[in-house]
Amino acid sequence: MATRPSPIFWLLRRLLRFGSAHPVLLLVLLGLSTGEYAYEVNIARPPLLYQGAPEAIDKRNSNTWFRILRNHGFILGYSDLRGNPLWVEYALKDQTLNTPHLKRPSHFDTDWRSINRVSHDSYRGSGYDRGHMAPNYAISRLYGKQGQADSFLMTNITPQKTKLNQRVWQHLEELEIDYFAKEFGKVWVITGPVFNKSIERLPKDWTVEIADAFYKIYVTEATVDKPSIALAFLIPQTVNGKEPLTQFITSVDAIEAKTGLNFFSQLDDNTETALESSINPKPWRTDVKNKSARY
């Protein structure tokens, strides 16, 4: 029995046939695709990134491969192999008094750009919450209805234990918009999961890997008078939810070692080294008490 060609081989063969039959049209399509990619890389993405997109330290390691997906108000690097965003980045600023409070959606949507088609039901009965990386409250307040809708795409979601998601993680989400943004004017946030070598996946969707911990990195923009400062957290899934945030403070260097990602690659070497090695929580008001849930 003859074997069927692989989908990639079949697609390449069809493209070659199309190109032979319509060479001018193929060139036009290639030109449009090249122009769209150039627009993404050079114009659309940079305003959503602080000092460049995160990069894989070892590009041969498939566990750190990702595709960059741009959303309204935030941007992320999505791993179709792990069913998780490896990093999500967004900027916070002090919210205005007249910003409307949008009702929280009750359903998460499959992202049409994802290959593995993770859905709302993928998490059902798993024992894990659908954990936002770009947070609903801050994104909806700062970037409106479209930003909120994009934050409910499954490419922005990763499995989190309830005590992490609804306690420690929520406390951080509250601090960053209510205190960090007010204190510093503008704060960049990069966040995502951390995996160890033991692989566990959701029972109903094997394409979604379960992280062992999560990181958050906060960094301010430098001014004439003040250099950038950073604050980093590494929080395990096993928290009981009552721990002080100071227990999880670490350095950006430590997170890079855990994730295999390089952050802020466009900074000069001396500035990057100083920023990523520092551990100084004093300017950040991490001792602010948690308020009641509102997300």
Can you give keywords for this protein?
single chain, about 300 residues, alpha+beta, seven-stranded antiparallel beta sheet, 13 strands, about 20% strand
Give a brief description.
This protein has 295 residues and is an alpha+beta fold.
Characterize the structure shown.
The radius of gyration is 21 Å and the shape is globular. It is α+β, with helices and mostly antiparallel strands. Strand 2 and strand 3 form a beta hairpin. The strands form four sheets. It has a seven-stranded antiparallel sheet with strand order 2-3-4-7-10-11-12. It has a two-stranded antiparallel sheet with strand order 1-13. The chain has a two-stranded antiparallel ribbon with strand order 5-6. The longest helix is centred in the middle third of the chain and has 23 residues, at 162-184. Mean pLDDT is 89; it is low at 291-295. It has six helices and 13 strands. It has helices at residues 7-21, 23-44, 136-151, 162-184, 252-259, 269-277, and strands at residues 55-56, 67-70, 74-79, 84-93, 129-132, 157-160, 186-194, 201-202, 205-209, 213-220, 230-236, 249-250, 261-262.
Task: Report the average pLDDT across residues.
Answer: 89
| Share of residues in helices | 25-40%
Q: What overall form do the CA principal axes indicate?
A: globular
Poorly predicted ranges = 291-295
Q: Enumerate how many helices there are, as a single number.
A: 6
Distance between the terminal alpha carbons, to the nearest Å? 58 Å
Order of helices and strands: HHEEEEEHEHEEEEEEHEH
Number of strands: 13
Broad structural category: alpha+beta
Tell me what portion of residues adopts beta-strand conformation.
15-25%
| Multimerization status | single chain
